[in-house]
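Title: Request for sanity check on NTE family protein prediction

Description:
We are preparing a figure and want to confirm that the structure record we downloaded matches what your pipeline produces today. Could someone re-run it with the sequence below and paste the raw structure tokens into this thread? We only need the token string, no images.
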Amino acid sequence: MSPSTVLDHEARPQPEGMADVPGANAPTINLALQGGGAHGAFGWGVLDMLLEDGRIEIDGLSATSAGAMNAVVYAYGKMAGGKAHARELLELFWHRISRAGRTASPYQQTPFDLWLEGFGVKEPVSYRFFEALTRTFSPHQLNPLGFNPLRDVLTSVVDFDALRACRCTRLRLCATNVKTGKPQIFTNEMMSPEVVQASACLPMLFQAVEVDGHHYWDGGYVGNPAIYPLIYDAQARDILVVHINPIVRPDVPNDPSEIFNRINEISFNSSLIREMRAIAFATKLIDEDWIRPEHRDKLRRVFIHAIRSDDAMAEFSIASKFNTSWSFLTRLRDLGRAAAAQWIAAHLDDIGQRSTVDLHQEYL
């Protein structure tokens, strides 16, 4: 399938074959997928390249927000029809997101906005208006009926009843419990459209999503993504983190929108950095033999890898997380594909052998 192929069927597509049988000696990893609105198309590109390359098996995925969307579409496609079908469904999903965004997204560029870009105005007037509204009125006032086009897009692509029985991919989706502020990790048997909506619920845009009597907001506030589920209950020891939000920026922001964007990035990266600090400490305990012999089997070594493209992603404003134009989404997809191809070429042989990021330098 060409990366530029566009699938667009009204009914949920049916697989043509059974799921792939992994090779006995294929290296296996866990994926940790960050969220970031439309920027999640970068994660789509990473998955697309991993699937196209075919030499790496994915055991489990821990994901948040847009990463959660990618995760459930991938898992259902892989279960239902193998890697090729997973690629088809991911492209179909993002194409339908683009189509839904033509009317639902607050990011609507007009010729006037294109003219303003020449004067350094990055955000469309529609987004500026939306931003002012959401800082004045709550979603209970602006969206009292709880309209969310994501549900229809998800259910048009994923059969959640079938997904709950998926055993070929371990899913761990993170949402934030509004009342307690704690992370909630949803597993395969708990999957539903509401769970994915909860993981992606921006509190200034949507009412908190209720799942089993509890209310949730976007998981990015407490786990973007959560790493610990991949350590506690996954088989593979390698964790590949797919970054959406830049950790490092070269300049100090001075424009109001740039300041807000940087605050958003720091907030949505903070939980990940804390977990990396804990992993670095545990690794030091193992490396320096600080653990008593009777407890050594209780602490296992994990290998951390990362796909980042901070320079490229730093070019995009916070408003562009609502930009669902097909040209923008495929641009991000291609960035993700290129970053994944580069990582595979450099580190395929490192899987199962060593970490390929310096945790202290990159995260601490």
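Thanks, this matches our download. The first helix runs from residue 41 to 53.
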